[in-house]
Amino acid sequence: MAKSFDVVVIGGGPGGYAAAIKAAHLGMNVACIDMYINKEGKPALGGTCANVGCIPSKALLDSTWKFHEAQQDFAVHGIETTGVSMNVGAMIKRKDDIVRKQTDGVAMLLKANGVTWLQGRGKLLAGKQVEFTAHDGSTETLQAANVILASGSAPIKLPMAPLVDGVVVDNAGALEFQAVPKRLGVIGAGIIGLELGSVWNRLGSQVVVLEAMDTFLPMVDRQVGKELLKSLQKQGLDIRLAARVTGTSVANNEVTIEFTDANGEQKLVVDKLIVAVGRRPFTADLFTTDSGVNLDERGFIFVKDNCATDVPGVYAIGDIVRGPALAHKATEEGVMVAEIIGGHHAAVNYDCIPSVVYTHPEVAWVGKTEEQVKAAGEEYKVGTFAFAANGRAAAANETTGFVKVVADEKTDRVLGVHIVGPQASEIIMQAVIAMEFGASAEDLQMMVFAHPGLSEVFHEACLDVDGKAIHSAKRKRKK
Ligand code: FAD
Ligand code: NAD
Q1: Cα 212 from Cα 227, distance rounded (Å)
Q2: Residue 300 carries which DSSP code?
Q3: What's the pLDDT band for 473 if we cut at 50, 70, 90?
Q4: pTM more than 0.90
Q5: How far apart are CA 28 and CA 337, in angstroms?
Q6: Residues 125, 263 contacting (CB under 8 angstroms)
Q7: Mean pLDDT over residues 13-19, rounded?
Q8: In a mutational test of the pocket of ligand 1, which residue from 54, 95, 331 has the highest number of ligand atoms less than 8 Å from its CB?
Q9: What is the predicted pLDDT for the residue at 339?
Q10: Ligand 2 atom having least distance to the Cα of 259
Q11: Which atom of ligand 1 is nearest to the CA of 11?
């Protein structure tokens, strides 16, 4: 007889494992199937995020920013350093140790919550049955009352830039260079391209980023995008917009990239090339056609707002469904679905999901951009305030960037907050909390912010919405 579970989750990334843990909290009998094998050849939970995404990329961003500071920023504080050097092998090992701790931590959490971790591949069949194929090839059929599909995403491949082991790489390979490439090419000025391009640029690579579109980070507020582009260019990243790659070839450990830009056909020779042109939902061999699950026109699993597929009791979450490909979005969908299965009311507020680009300066935003509000014909007001006018930012020698607040002209409700600057990833959470509670700009104006603090820049931007910023000589004269 088939083993039966209240919930079978396919995929153990931030969406799947969170769903499994939450369902277990609610008293359900849960199995989580995950097929990932790490570079040591061992099964590892945590998905893209923990193994080759959020966590290892931030480990390298933090290591390399410390190196950058030691080389270029310490002197201003009076700290004299000579002969600072980077041991790339030690940096990569530290990253690997952090990844291992995270993935082992997820395994420990599943165990502590009584979730059965099945190591291998899962496939949804008709009637909410799940075929499980273990890594040794043995198969068994599980019967599930509910199934949560959480198989994540995979990098998009470019036919004109096929991967070549250790030379032309995707995001996973870009975390593994054992030495600093002298010349590094990156295809795609998206989040991965900018974060990983920054990592190697800080260690001395000459980085050229080729971006097909003529707009830099089009989803970001225009003023914020402009400021980030300027900062990254100042750091030495050579970002070329409207540059369309037409071909690549590898010979003698060098990559020749052919591309076209405004000046016609171009050639660039680099030592390593990172291809980071987006991700696609990973649905290969995930369900049979008679399972009843359908894809949408973009290849994502079709789901309603509550992540329910077309089959009652089958849900899909995270990168395989519409919406931003973000770990925290996957997690919240996983928790929501587990609660719905458990008979509770739950929903994700898709209008309030923060996004962060972990470059330096960081970029973070939530809600609508000024461009979106304008295009929708809504009446709005804007407040901005620069980190350069903030005492804590001056003390930290971190004065690049600003906070911008967009509010509804009539109701004063905050519609969006956009930050480029130090600790944007942390400050944005104040905006998320405020927006979740439907705050107006005035609500935030009346709050007391600790001094001196970088968050005061957010406070002043809220004040500036009504021309009331205290530390601004260019006060808008309203009331
Ligand atoms: P995944 O994390 O992709 O997990 C899916 C899991 O399912 C995998 O382990 C996979 O092996 C397994 N699987 C797939 N098919 C099957 C099957 N049939 N049977 C069994 N198992 C299966 N997001 C952020 O929010 N912040 C960041 O800073 C950030 N940085 C990133 C940096 C990089 C370099 C990359 C590549 C991504 C980054 N992301 C970041 C995105 C984030 O990693 C994803 O949005 C997130 O991991 C999606 O979670 P998920 O649970 O949907 O899928
Ligand atoms: P992306 O969609 O952010 O950017 C890809 C870029 O590549 C785009 O600007 C696109 O125009 C460009 N491009 C596409 N085809 C091209 C071509 N042929 N030549 C040149 N440029 C081309 O994708 P990504 O950077 O690969 O990241 C994938 C997803 O992973 C992101 O959308 C994001 O959701 C997630 N992610 C998040 C974080 C974070 O939250 N900090 C970090 C990394 C990744």
Answers
A1: 20
A2: S
A3: confident
A4: yes
A5: 13
A6: no
A7: 98
A8: 54
A9: 98
A10: 19
A11: 7
- Any atom of ligand 2 within 6 Å of the Cβ of 356: yes
Q: Which of 240, 314, 263, 282 is nearest to 48 (CA)?
A: 282
Kindly list the catalytic residues.
Answer: 451
Contacts of 196 (CB under 8 A, 6+ apart): 57, 60, 171, 174, 175, 186, 274, 276
Distance from residue 48's CA to the centre of ligand 1 (Å): 3
Which residue segments constitute the domains of the chain, with CATH numbers given? Answer: 3-155+280-348 (3.50.50.60), 168-277 (3.50.50.60), 352-464 (3.30.390.30)
Which ligand is the nearest neighbour of the Cα of 187? 2
* 16 Cβ inside 6 Å of ligand 1: yes
- pLDDT, tens digit, for every residue of 78-135? 999 999 999 999 999 999 999 999 999 999 999 999 999 999 999 999 999 999 999 9
CA of 224 to the centre of ligand 2 (A): 18
- Tell how far the Cα of 243 is from the centroid of ligand 2, in angstroms: 15
Element (H, E) at 40: none
Give the pLDDT confidence score for residue 478 in this predicted structure.
55
Q: Is the pLDDT reported for residue 477 higher than 60?
A: no
3-class DSSP assignment, residue 319: helix
* CA 73 – ligand 1 centroid, Å: 35
| Sequence-ordered list of residues with C-beta below 8 angstroms from that of 67, at least 6 positions apart, any chain | 84, 86, 202, 203
Please report the atom of ligand 1 found closest to the CA of residue 44.
Answer: 9
Q: What is the pLDDT of residues 139-186, one digit of tens each?
A: 999 999 999 999 999 999 999 999 999 999 999 999 999 999 999 999
CA distance 158 to 329: 27
Q: Under a CB-based contact definition with an 8 Å cutoff, are residues 33 and 132 in contact? A: yes
- CB of 152 sitting under 6 A from ligand 2: no
The 10s digit of each residue's pLDDT in 218-231 is 999 999 999 999 99
Measure 228 CA to ligand 2 centroid, in angstroms.
16
Is any ligand 1 atom within 6 A of the Cβ of residue 354? no
CB 355 within 8 A of CB 324: yes
pLDDT at 475 over 70: no
141 within 8 A of 125, measured Cβ to Cβ: yes
Q: Is the CB of 324 under 6 A from ligand 2?
A: yes
- The finding on whether 10 has its CB within 6 A of some atom of ligand 1 is yes
Ligand that lies nearest to the alpha carbon of residue 211, given by its number in the listed order: 2
